[in-house]
Amino acid sequence: MTKLHTQAGLKENAGQFWLLMVMTAFVGAMVGLERAVIPTFAETVFGMNGHTAILSFIVAFGLAKSVANLVMGQLSVHFTRRQLLLAGWLFALPVPWLLFYASSWWLVIAANLLLGINQGLCWSTSIVMTLDLVGEKNRGLAMGINEFSGYVAVGLASFLAGYIASSTGQVLYAFLPGIAFSVAGVLLTLLVVRDTQAHVQAEAATSRVPLLSSVWHYTSWRHSNLGPVTLNGFVSKINDGVLWGLLPLVLAAKGYSLVETGFLAGVYPAVWGIGQLFTGKLGDTFSRKLLLCLGMLVQGVAIVALYFAASYTPLLLALAAVGIGTAMVYPTFLTLVADNTHPSQRSQSMGIFRFWRDFGYVAGAVAAGLFSDLFGMDTVVLCAGLLTIGAALFTQLRMRRPAFAAYVTAEV
């Protein structure tokens, strides 16, 4: 393959880069369709009132997605990125049909297992392929655009689902756009997407980042930069899982309509997504450690503010602030993982990070389901915010400011 085909950079790979952004938007839209309506779907169609039962779909989704992230990293050693991307989209094809024709809650759980696999394989692979294409320069900007495309799609699809359900009077119809998203993902992968293995080989030949002796141990905890990133990813998904499962119920209990709930539930992922266009680039210019710590702090304080918000405007402002804080940390997570891993180990380390990060969905959903019945939904939201603030303070103490740490080659 010629140098032209393996040269890294946004401009040099513009066609494939923007194609991957479109693919990421489809991935985000698939899960966005469920965010605003699944709890209502559980209550109105299946008559489920217990928080634990309603949040079981998030547990299924989180488990499947976290494991799929881990598997993606391991399978990337044996299969191409493009093959893994295609496999992820094939898992998505049955999801909207299962939800539309679900005759029992177990079919909803099955659909969310498949959706989790789709998210883990497709989103992780698109991130790694994007990093392969852009190289070291503008890495933060590229991750900001990637996360922007995905999470704006989550927010817009969430609002779309709420609108469809409200205007038609049928929650089931909210899932139908997923048919178009999944089919488009399969066709684009088959016909247009190119693999990035040649870019990985070219970057690996000149990389100065040392190999990790144990990718699992160092990414999970031992590395002074990777460990805090993984912890913060886990905590960030705990609060996202809590908000995903409980926010529609909290808003419904406050008397808000399905359209208002859909809008409010979509505010923070929309702000989160748009904000990443700016925060990703900030990570290329300023300290990524500072951006991570400050973002987690803003996120945590805003979630605590939700506990005290009593009317529409404070709720709206608090959710927008959650989105701002989350926008600060999400591209930073990914760029820090890429900064601290060798190109040949990037997909494995990214898969491990995203395994722990998305396992936070499971922890958040279980905590929300169990503790909201015992202590109330508002109290669970408050605790999620306090936990996020604690993670920010821990990271400030442990993380090293430089991107690389020479000792990572030490034996475990």
Structure summarized in a few sentences:
This protein has 412 residues and is mainly alpha-helical.
Provide a descriptive summary of the structure in words.
This protein is mostly helical and 412 residues long. It is 79% helix and 0% strand. The protein contains 18 helices and no strands. The protein has helices spanning 3-6, 14-35, 38-46, 51-54, 56-75, 81-92, 95-100, 105-134, 139-168, 177-191, 197-204, 215-222, 226-253, 258-285, 288-308, 312-339, 346-375, 377-398. Helix 12 (215-222) crosses helix 13 (226-253) and helix 13 packs antiparallel against helix 16 (312-339). The longest helix is centred in the first third of the chain and has 30 residues, at 105-134. Mean pLDDT is 87; it is low at 402-412.
Major sheet characteristics:
none
Q: Provide the low-confidence segments as ranges.
A: 402-412
Quaternary structure annotation = single chain
Number of strands: 0
Structural class: mainly alpha
The N- to C-terminal Cα distance equals: 37 Å
Mean pLDDT, to the nearest integer, reads 87
The coarse overall form would be: globular
* Gyration radius, rounded: 20 Å
Helix count, per DSSP? 18
Share of residues in helices? over 70%
Strand content: under 5%
SSE ordering:
HHHHHHHHHHHHHHHHHH
